[in-house]
């Protein structure tokens, strides 16, 4: 008989099938938009969907290989991606995400030149011209320029814009717990250690590590599902009922219950 994790992984595979259907609809499709903001939103959501698909696939592979803590690090990044996307759509900032590519071109060029790697003159002129046109959108309070497209906004701010059940419910507490692993905090590293007879044993399959794998699966699933929902709504692709069904089925068969300390039960 399949356990809850195996059943949940099958639902994730079904969500990936829906993702494939959506990306096939989008592939080569000429997007239509009525406003400039809608143009940027559609591009941003498309990029984020492809990234979230890759991330969930990698999470499933790592869990299959009994590497739950590595999966949890990817899940943390997936949830941060969801927070960024939700912030951009909520505050109509998708244009900043798209335009920040010009800032990255400039930063990369400057970094390369510090190591003696010169940019061709024509490319350099184009990069500087683009940079000068949009750099005012990324000014810091001290007169410099932000190194991230959402500069001046914290992840805590962005998480606060997520739906309440996501922000204050299981997902946000799971995310904070997974940060311990990514940041090499004692609590996170201890998830892969067992002490027996004053000896420290390293293993991937401690009880705590399995809990982190559960959290990784939930965050990866939710991050992709919410991104697909955004695109389906924006482009009216006709997958809403299927997405709703998968969400309900996933949480009906596989739910990580957490007490006030944030531990899974």
How do the helices and strands follow one another from N- to C-terminus? HHHHHHHHHEEHH
Query: What does the main sheet amount to?
Result: 2 strands, antiparallel
Q: Record the strand order, biggest sheet.
A: 1-2
From the spread of the alpha carbons, the general shape counts as globular
Number of strands: 2
Poorly predicted runs: 256-265
Rg result? 21 Å
Helix content: 55-70%
Mean pLDDT: 85
In brief:
The chain is mainly α.
How would you sum up this structure, described in words?
- The protein has 265 residues and is mainly alpha-helical.
- Helix content is 68%, strand content 3%.
- The chain has helices spanning 4-26, 36-64, 68-91, 94-114, 121-134, 155-159, 164-167, 170-182, 186-189, 207-235, 240-253, and strands at 193-196, 199-202.
- A two-stranded antiparallel ribbon has the order 1-2.
- β1 (193-196) and β2 (199-202) form a beta hairpin.
- The longest helix has 29 residues, at 36-64.
- It starts with a helix and ends in a 12-residue tail after the last helix.
Q: What are its keywords?
A:
2 domains, disordered C terminus, mainly alpha, 265 residues
Topology:
Layout: H1 4-26, H2 36-64, H3 68-91, H4 94-114, H5 121-134, H6 155-159, H7 164-167, H8 170-182, H9 186-189, E1 193-196, E2 199-202, H10 207-235, H11 240-253
Antiparallel strand pairs: 1-2
Helix pairs in contact: 1-2, 1-10, 1-11, 2-3, 2-4, 2-10, 3-4, 3-8, 3-10, 4-5, 8-10
